[in-house]
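User: Sequence recovery, please. Input:
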């Protein structure tokens, strides 16, 4: 069945010469043939640069505690494409996915469409079979011309942290935060808009300006909801409905409290029947693959021994900033293994860590032709002390001289984290 699935996906990738072609015509045409399934579902749309998946996973975990059935669409997948297709709180298995893909493939009738667009059409087509479920839908690249942006209505739009990323898809003279904010927020639907904490006041100001004429109910971090860290493994959430004392979640990093607070604010705004106890239990059961994830067992963990072993697929400037903030809370030696895609701002990413790290090891990302080579990455980092290159993940781990209590972090790309999880 895996081979059959692989063949279908290969056919999908040949339907359009470009991996990404920002336009809504193809997805609209296919969805029209499918009966416009996107108009038959209840959706919370999640737009932004960082924190989208984490916010979705927090919403999903809380909704499950409230016995509310969900469909979930995220990208990219980490280990297998099935992760992108959750219906009725269950990931589709290979056979179910093959059946869905072949049905939509037949209806598409070999018409040009990008890989992400046809996957999105498949999701909407299946989601329409569960009209009473809540759909949690992660937007792709920029949103204005993103395949997920063909809904006519939704329950809410969550805007997570927006920062500079995917600049190579913008013209040289438009590679600015102003343009990115415009692309992500200028076409939000008129419903509820929940704005997460932004990395600076200027970005929040740009968002406010872009959605000024949008008639939605607008909920802003620090104005309409907020959180504060408490002692003894608790934190506090507050919005216009009142204050909640909550146990710390099962995910690491202060930035995750921002994502979780945004999820809580959204669900309380929508009045879906989520109670305080659902929130308390849900935030302790969040499944967040490759987002500051601790590896507790497995082949690679055996090489790391008793030291803390984390993977985090952060790959842009803002991701580096929040990740480094977390590392600064740890009183230990920190070692980083890093691989990145070619189109990222490599020097800016590593600049956040250079004063906080005992060693940096660059590697190639296996099976990724669009990745920068580990040797090239090392050359870009040549002004940072203790930088070396190793050919493989295993060799990189074995080359690091760790003492008890040290931390090993593998970062720079979700694709690299996927390889780590598969190897482990």
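Assistant: Recovered sequence (424 residues):
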């Amino acid at each position: 069945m895996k081979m059959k699935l692989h063949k279908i996906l290969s056919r999908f990738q040949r339907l359009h010469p470009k991996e990404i072609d920002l336009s809504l015509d193809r997805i609209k045409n296919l969805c029209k043939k499918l009966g416009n399934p996107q108009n038959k579902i209840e959706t919370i749309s999640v737009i932004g640069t960082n924190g989208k998946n984490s916010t979705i996973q927090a919403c999903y975990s809380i909704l499950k505690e409230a016995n509310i059935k969900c469909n979930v669409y995220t990208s990219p997948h980490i280990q297998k494409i099935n992760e992108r297709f959750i219906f009725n709180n269950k990931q589709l298995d290979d056979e179910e996915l093959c059946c869905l893909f072949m049905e939509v493939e037949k209806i598409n009738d070999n018409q040009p469409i990008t890989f992400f667009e046809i996957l999105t059409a498949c999701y909407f087509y299946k989601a329409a079979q569960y009209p009473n479920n809540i759909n949690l839908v992660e937007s792709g690249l920029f949103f204005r011309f993103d395949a997920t942006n063909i809904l006519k209505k939704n329950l809410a739009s969550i805007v997570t942290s927006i920062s500079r990323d995917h600049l190579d898809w913008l013209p040289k003279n438009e590679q600015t935060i102003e343009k990115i904010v415009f692309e992500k927020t200028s076409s939000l639907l008129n419903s509820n808009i929940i704005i997460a904490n932004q990395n600076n006041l200027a970005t929040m100001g740009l968002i406010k300006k872009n959605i000024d004429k949008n008639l939605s109910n607008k909920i802003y971090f620090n104005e309409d909801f907020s959180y504060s860290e408490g002692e003894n493994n608790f934190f506090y959430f507050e919005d216009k409905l009142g204050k909640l004392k909550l146990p710390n979640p099962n995910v690491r990093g202060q930035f995750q409290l921002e994502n979780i607070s945004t999820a809580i604010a959204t669900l309380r705004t929508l009045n879906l029947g989520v109670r305080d106890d659902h929130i308390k239990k849900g935030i302790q059961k969040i499944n967040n693959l490759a987002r500051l994830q601790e590896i507790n067992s497995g082949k690679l963990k055996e090489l790391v021994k008793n030291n803390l072993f984390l993977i985090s697929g952060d790959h842009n400037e803002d991701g580096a900033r929040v990740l480094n903030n977390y590392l600064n809370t740890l009183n230990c030696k920190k070692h980083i293994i890093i691989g990145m895609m070619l189109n990222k701002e490599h020097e800016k990413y590593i600049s956040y860590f250079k004063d906080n790290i005992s060693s940096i090891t660059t590697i190639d990302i296996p099976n990724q032709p669009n990745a920068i080579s580990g040797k090239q990455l090392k050359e870009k980092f040549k002004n940072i002390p203790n930088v070396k290159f190793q050919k493989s993940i295993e060799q990189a781990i074995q080359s690091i001289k760790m003492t008890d209590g040290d931390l090993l972090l593998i970062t720079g790309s979700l694709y690299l984290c996927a390889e780590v999880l598969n190897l482990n």
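The mean pLDDT is 94.
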